[in-house]
Specification:
It is a single chain. The protein is mainly α. The protein folds into two domains: about 210 residues, Endonuclease III, domain 1 (Orthogonal Bundle), CATH 1.10.340.30; about 40 residues, no CATH class. The chain is about 55% helix and about 0% strand. Helix 2 packs antiparallel against helix 8.
């Protein structure tokens, strides 16, 4: 069997990359604090345009005050807004959480459904949130669900391009590309380990390629000789494979001429 390298096709590199990251990060973990599917759903909604650290500062008090869906509906929306204000976009998030709770009570007896089609019908729950919840709570159901996929957040967007697994910037197209490259059994945990790797090693502007367990599979690796190109792109070029960096430079030259 031919060894997989950074020059191998995506269908070979993608599964190998995720397999190594799964080993490196013990299968992946959601860094939000939660103990029930409902808590994870609320925390994931709060994490939009915020950080897991900030959400984890809010949720201990929040979960104690609001144990279940009915509790979020028992207070005025303004009170809930004050309780989640530090997460940012608190008005929209309060509206989404209350709408989600109302739908859970009306359609699912107050329980979080573990089917993708049901999850994305809840107010405030898009595919990214639904994939996170389903993959973390019920990975076997995630693998078996024909509507499930791969959660795409900002880290997954950045690293999937840097690793040469997609050329797109749109989350929908990136998810489709990753689903085409990765085996289904990797879908529940793929985004979790990619996110952890993006936070701990493969940072946006200063990726630590010499510490990276998938450096030899990465076409944009600084250690592989594109440090000067990435530097000229002010740190942004490192998120693209070298061929895309050259294409971007050519486009800039045409605009100046």
């Amino acid at each position: 069997m031919t060894d997989v390298t950074r020059r191998s096709r995506k269908g070979a590199r993608g599964p190998a990359i995720v397999a190594r990251l799964l080993d490196e990060y013990d299968g992946g973990v959601v860094e939000l604090h939660w103990s029930t599917p409902f808590q994870l759903l609320v925390a994931t909604i709060l994490s939009a345009q915020s950080t897991d650290r900030k959400v984890n500062e809010i949720t201990p008090t929040l979960f104690a005050k609001y144990p279940g869906p009915s509790d979020y509906l028992a207070v005025d929306e303004e009170e809930l807004q004050d309780d989640i204000r530090q997460s940012g976009f608190f008005r929209q998030k309060a509206k989404s959480i209350r709408g989600m709770c109302r739908a859970l009570l009306a359609e699912h007896d107050g329980r979080v459904p573990l089917r993708m089609d049901d999850l994305v019908r809840l107010p405030g729950v898009a595919r990214k949130t639904a994939n996170v919840v389903l993959g973390a709570v019920a990975p076997e159901a995630h693998v078996a669900d024909p509507d499930a996929g791969i959660a795409v957040d900002t880290h997954v967007k950045r690293l999937s391009r840097r690793l040469g697994l997609t050329r797109h910037t749109d989350a929908v197209r990136i998810e489709r590309d990753l689903m085409a490259v990765l085996p289904r059994e990797q879908w529940p945990s793929a985004s979790l380990v990619i996110i952890l790797h993006g936070r701990r090693v493969c940072e946006a502007r200063r990726p630590r390629c010499t510490e990276c367990v998938v450096e030899d599979l990465c076409p944009a690796s600084l250690a592989a000789g594109c440090a000067d190109r990435a530097g000229r792109a002010a740190g942004l070029g490192a998120s693209r494979p070298p061929r895309l960096i050259r294409a971007g430079a050519a486009a800039r030259r045409r605009r100046r001429s």
